[in-house]
Amino acid sequence: MKTFRFCVSLALAALMIASSIVLAAQNPAPASAPRGNAENGRMLFAKFGCYECHGREAQGSTATGPRLGPNPIAYNRFIAYIRKPAGEMPPYTAKVVTEQQAADIYAFLQSLPRPPAAETIPLLK
Amino acid sequence: MAKTRKFSADRRRFLKGAAVAGAATLAAPTGMAQSQPAQAQRAAAVPLPPPGAETGTPPEVDVLTADRCGSDFMVDVIKSLDIEYICSNPGSSFRALHESVINYGGNQKPEFLTCCHEESSVAMAHGYSKIEGKPLGVLAHGTVGLQHAAMGIYNAYCDRAPVYIIVGNAIDATMRRPGVEWAHSVQDAAAMVRDYVKWDDLPISLQHFAESAVRAYKIAMTPPLSPVLLVADTELQERPIHETDKLRIPKLTRTSPPQGDSGAVAEAARLLAGAQNPVIIADRAARTPAGMKSLVELAETLQAPVIDQGGRMNFPSRHPLNQSSRTRALVVDADVILGLELTDFWGTVNAYRDQLERSSRSITKAGAKLISITALDLYTKANYQDFQRYPEIDLAMAADAEATLPALIEAVKKLMTADRRNSFQARGAKLATASQTALQQARTEATYAWDASPISTARLSAELWAQIKTEDWSLVSSSLGWPQRLWTFDKYYQYIGGSGGAGVGYGAPAAAGAALANKKYGRLSINIQNDGDLMYAPGVLWTAAHHRIPMLSVMHNNRAYHQEVMHLQRMANRHNRGIERPHIGTTIEDPNIDYSKLAQSMGLYAEGPISDPKNLGPAIQRAIAAVKRGEPALLDVVTQPR
Fold it and tell me: What is the pTM of this model?
């Protein structure tokens, strides 16, 4: 039975890799982010439900979704992931989030300030 | 020790029919029924006594009173079980038992606690049991009361928590009062919850009640612990006890919890001692403080990492072998996994993906050995599916984990060699480093959104910790995750785990029940309270105020049934439409609920809404001062979603 599960997992992995290749071929994403509007991105981050798993400041949650900013992942990886997530995240296709809207959300993530160091916060010492 | 008690009463000819007629006459005087609309409406269902009954000559009866009744004996039985409290919303199907508790029993052990919903009664008992390690009583009204209680019972069943439920029912149809008592009577009262109680009975004599009551307690407290239910017939409660009734309360002998087979224990020890990367995973492993102590000893003997899934307070949060934040990495690398009372072993060793095509895969490496010790294997029902997907275990022990741990520890120690001890110490040192790294990482992650409004759940947890860390505290709610990462849990009563069945509405009353258990020890009970959960039955706040149950509730008020917001988002995205609309039907806004006013209206000290993190610390200080005066207090904190 374990062999069967291993085969299934291999097949899934192969499928995911193949899907990524197809996705890349159809929708080549720029490595650098298109110009985005961070203020509009903050509004869209809430409106499109990103905050539900990642928090309103994209700070993340161990239970739902990882921290997204500041210093988000590279834009091409960001856009590829939201279009076709490999994990639990629901997909955000081009039909519901345009390239420009995605760029605005990315700009919001880039605009987030770095937090203070934990050592400087008395409650976290 | 056997107890023999004899009960005597004046020998009387008791004409029940006449007595019932007399009571009805007193309860519904004709004049009042005609003058008050509400009673006039009731009169349509309840036949009134003939005109002039109140002033006419009463029917001849021998007696209208009784010095001792069946419910007195029932209270004697309940007292023999050392049940401290009975949580109940009053109901006429147990009116005699209620009266016996407060008058015959002196309203002490058990003390009657007034609840505003039977679901709250059961959840209070559920929470209490996880602190005190024994059941609390619940009295529920026939049919409708038990229907209200049902979800709470299901949670307790799924959480393997003992709750002792007595439900009133009028079994003899010829004795029922016309009208409502018929609507609340039932042939088989327990039927609706039989799938999720471990045992039930319908005693038809007082001696039968005594034996079943003691049996029910014994069954509830034998692992896997579970709710039990007795039906208390109204006639049995209300009939006088005669001196010829020879009643005695049987001796209670607790059943020793089942230990794992010695051969299986030895094999488990061999696998664990020989493993390169053993992992211990505990969910409801520690039933008592002794279970936690044993788990620490096993982990230290093996220098093996422990993942505490949090069904109970299994393992100290800052122990260097507590590696709960590294679950996935450890499971993936493990060559031997020991699961102790896992709710979901399959889900622990498989990854599941909730996309359009649902899929799953094993995350364990080839050849990894899985060992299970769980009392769940001793008692599995069919209808409700809380038993989860079938896990492929290599060595399964149908046994209580806590009871089995001492033998397993001894078996592992027998296999210790100098080489093994050295390699175990090296493993432990690496794990200690990983533990420190995880703590630092948690502190760093907590800095993100530190000053955000709504307040981050990390900030809320850190502010709370600053105020309680020097107190003898107890977290009487399930966790946001952050307390386990930032606080130091090292005592069994400092965490009570979750609801079991994920039935919403458990949180507030379970916290009140756990706080009730903590009260006599002078502990500071902290409840991180979800807003949606509180709104199921907020009346428990009144119960806490009325019965002076000290507890600080801090609202995790994200103004939503947030789990459902995320589910709706998933569906909208999957269907490529309306991704901005999942708040419809899932959020609790417009108007925002003012939880501080809600709490104040029920007699609590309360502040809020608090949305600026700078105001949180001082508010917590003021609220704790109120709790130390013996009051429940509530802070409404507007928070980030998770």
Answer: 0.89
